[in-house]
Amino acid sequence: MFKNPYIRTIIASNALLNLGIWVRNFAILLYVTDLTHNDPVYVSLISVAEFMPIFLFAIIGGTFADRWRPKRTMISCDLLSAASIFIVLLALWYGSWQVLLLSTFFSAILSQFSQPSAMKLFKQHVAPEQLQGVMALFQSLMALFVVIGPVIGTFIYQHFGIFVSLSVTGVIFLLSALVLTGIPQDEQKQQADQNTTYFIEELKEGMRYVWANRTLRTLGGAFTVIGLAVGLIQPLMLFVALENLGQNKEFLQWLLMANGAAMLIGGSVIMSVAKKVQPQMLLVAGLLVSTLATFGIGWSHSIVLTLGLQVFSGLFYPCIQIGINTMMMKNAEAAFIGRVGGALSPLFMGMMVVGMSIGGTLKHSSSLFIVFAVSAGLFLVGAMLLVPLLRDTPPAQAAVAGESE
Asked: Which of 41, 147, 188, 285 is 20 to 30 A distant from 74 in Cα terms?
């Protein structure tokens, strides 16, 4: 796969972006918890600022990604993300900590234009039989930074503070933009007549395309339920460390590292069997394991058991991400990749934001275990929604992709 310059360059850029995002996010998390004395509402607000733009801008970004030149879009987004970091640094020097949320918010908006562009390049320049392997590679890279990201982010913040952490993030974003200049310049001709239709028309066309495709439509229903499940527990892992395990907030990094190391192993295994397993089977298996692990983590007060469940969950979590991405890539034409992702992502992220917004309040009114139990139940519902797709064979799915034409 690495003989392909598109894969090689985009993976290198994605590695830098992952590093920068982990340094930024962990620095902001630790900084805000220091200031607010571990208030769960403020901790939830950090996640809301990170994921709300995905709900608001995914369909817009996906539609523009189908119209614009992918390389130029990705480079511009990285440069603007870097600029926003340095502007926030100046504002932070004179203002309150709330300005940190603006940096996360703006960067998340830009990612809605950049990520669909990368997927479009993969759809255009990667052989269909390699797509699931590429998605597994992406997942393994993400898992690697789940392992090392918290350690690096915590180290930089604890030794150098919030200003150095954000400065490092800005420089990394600039390096990512530099790496992306290595993408071959072959997309210009096919983009020449891209603006002959109106934006609103293309957006509506993308929505109709998703609705007419049974696989994508079913995936959208599952996205809605899974998003709420993830959102409920996303900001509350900190309290697993603090309340269930009786540790300090820095212990969160070890929970994340255990999960990330297992994700790295799981992604590597899936990469080796990617051509043999249907993506919908991967997705259902990942959701069933998430059901068991989420319930157990909310119930457990044992460090060993919780770490074990984090490993168990991490081994199968790549099944979810790889299954989702592969199903979208295989069931959408290149001209619709951005809009398909833009139509489905808000369903997931919108409910995820809803879950993050109410997770802290639900914990206050009930308990941490109740929140995790509800989340586990939602994962199970998501898996059940996808069961009808397990009967589809690869040829049948290929035919489904053409239903919207």
From this structure: 147
What are the structure tokens assigned to 400, written together?
A: 């489904």
Q: What is the pLDDT of residue 392?
A: 62
For the beta carbon of residue 250, count every other beta carbon within 10 angstroms: 12
Query: What string of DSSP letters covers 354-388?
Result: HHHHHHHHHHHHS-HHHHHHHHHHHHHHHHHHHGG
d(CA 336, CA 152): 37
Token readout for 339 is 């809009």
Q: What is the model's pLDDT at position 378? A: 92
Using CA atoms, how far apart are residues 42 and 32, in angstroms rounded to an integer?
8
**Residues 291-309 pLDDT 10s:** 999 999 989 888 899 899 9
Q: What is the rounded CA–CA span in Å between residue 69 and residue 71?
A: 6
Q: For residue 392, with 0-12 CB atoms within 10 Å meaning exposed, 13-18 middle and 19 or more buried, which class applies?
A: middle
Residue of 72, 78, 75 lying closest to 188 (CA atoms): 72
The helix-helix angle for 99-125 and 337-365 (nearest 10°) equals 140
387, with CB counted inside 10 A (0-12, 13-18, 19+), is exposed
Structure tokens given for 404? 């919207």
pTM of this structure: 0.66
Q: Shortest CA distance to 267 belongs to which of 126, 118, 143, 119?
A: 143
Residue 379: count other Cβ atoms within 10 Å of its Cβ.
25
pLDDT less than 50: residues of the chain: 187-195, 395-405
Q: What are phi and psi of 158, to 5 degrees?
A: -70, -30
